[in-house]
């Protein structure tokens, strides 16, 4: 997939670029309003990660420009502003999602994957990873042909892992993804472990390979080694 | 003491003192003038006697009138010094004359002692005139004057009261404005126009001061907000770098422990910053997404969100929810519930208990924990937290601000070993 990262903060831009650069992905970056506008007008992207406060202009204007020209690129706004007005304004103009800084790269990846899925699968709602097939609408998981029953959180976690396949996902990121920012229990992530344990158990019982690896006590990695 | 009272007090005292002084001077002046008139009469009388003696070479016959007595007495030549005296005038009582010769009364009189020589005889003349009319006159004038002054005083006090009350009205209006002045709300102190320069100046000073205070306050809040915003970007960079770092393989146990600590610290920093921003927003009343909320549904949803954590800490949760709808910001209501529940978990012990209850009057959450009650006056202040708490220290402050924003009341009590937080609608 082709992704444009519009972000003026170099540290953040490079991290995102590195995280998204993998086989089959093309990442381009723009650090200013003008360069972003130029790229947006020349090339099409599967998803544009758009910072709102940019040197030279407002990211929302780029979004407006896209919509005026009827471009169908997916747009995810990344903003330091967590105000409801901004969020609503962005989504009203036609952004597909809104993510507030700071965020975990795994969260960003999961959201971008969701946007691209929505855009490209267009009606079809099956996500396939090796022998695992996930029906996104019915929220059903099959291993081969065997259906596996997952709870809502387990389902969300599986999706999260698949979106971040091959990456180490930190426990913080998982906790924030499942329980939102509101969760303030950073001292104890044991409950995540029980979720992971359940998912592994259910998948293996259905005849799936074990894809989930613990990573040095920091997080987990979902990978087809 | 009211200004008017004080003013009247001063006014009254000075008026009375001035009145007494003028009264005394007035009395002395009139008395002096009238005595002068009497003295002229006496001199005229003396002259008549001299004229008579010169003409007749004999003393005139003494007679008594009602207001004048003349007596002659022989004296050693040259022994009499001519002078005016204040004396008494014996007024004979006409009605009782027949019965008793000396019956009568003494009145104030003015006398002239003089001397005359008739032939070789030397006489002392004493002419006395009654001063009673003069005294009466003085008294009359004095009373009229006092009456006028008293009347003036009364009129002054009454008009003062009326006029001053009206004059001071702008002042009272300004006082009223100051009393309801709040640095946080949008209401400005209005420009009052009066014809009194002092009040205009006071009003101008007040308006300027209020505007400046509000401006500074807004600046300060904007600063807090901007500072928190600006912090978000570096935190985002740290966070993303950490996420990138853990992708590189082969960490030792010690390194992964360090990374975990870094993650928790960044996560705490993030939450703290978020809480600060939220607090600024709630305090500014910047949440305008009010709509009807089914609180029962929200509370149930929230409790199920926390289920894993309840289980993890072996906390027994019992809840009863009645239907309750509130009109409020969805976002804030969620934060309120989540704050209260996570507090109840955080300050609980393993195997503890949480009781959540929602009815039409209140949302109550009780939890076991420390056996000592918390200091009520401190727990709602910013950054107050127990030493072992991992929280931001802003949770309860935010909760209380949200409740105030909604027009609810958040209260704490300690009951039968339970810490009870109650939101009363």
- Total beta-strand segments of chain B: 11
Overall helicity of chain A: 40-55%
Strand order of the largest sheet of chain B: 6-8-9-11-10
What CATH first level of the largest domain in chain A would be assigned?
Answer: Alpha Beta
Q: Could you walk me through the main structural features you see in this protein, from its secondary elements to its overall organization?
A:
Chain A is 42% helix and 24% strand. In chain A, helix 2 packs parallel to helix 3. In chain A, 40% of the residues are buried. Chain A has a five-stranded parallel sheet, with helices on both faces. Chain A is an alpha/beta fold and 225 residues long. Chain A folds into two domains: 120 residues, Rossmann fold (3-Layer(aba) Sandwich); 97 residues, Arc Repressor Mutant, subunit A. The longest helix of chain A has 17 residues. The model of chain A has no long low-confidence stretch (mean pLDDT 85). Chain A is built from eight helices and 14 strands. Chain B has 425 residues and is an alpha+beta fold. Chain B has three domains: 161 residues, no CATH class; 82 residues; 138 residues, Histidine kinase-like ATPase, C-terminal domain (Heat Shock Protein 90). Chain B is built from ten helices and eleven strands. A five-stranded mixed sheet of chain B has the order 6-8-9-11-10. A four-stranded antiparallel sheet of chain B has the order 1-4-3-2. In chain B, strands 5-7 form a two-stranded antiparallel sheet. In chain B, a hairpin with a 3-residue loop joins strand 8 and strand 9. In chain B, helix 1 packs antiparallel against helix 2, helix 4 runs antiparallel to helix 5 and helix 8 packs antiparallel against helix 10. Chain B starts with a helix and ends with a strand. The chains are: A alpha/beta (225), B alpha+beta (425).
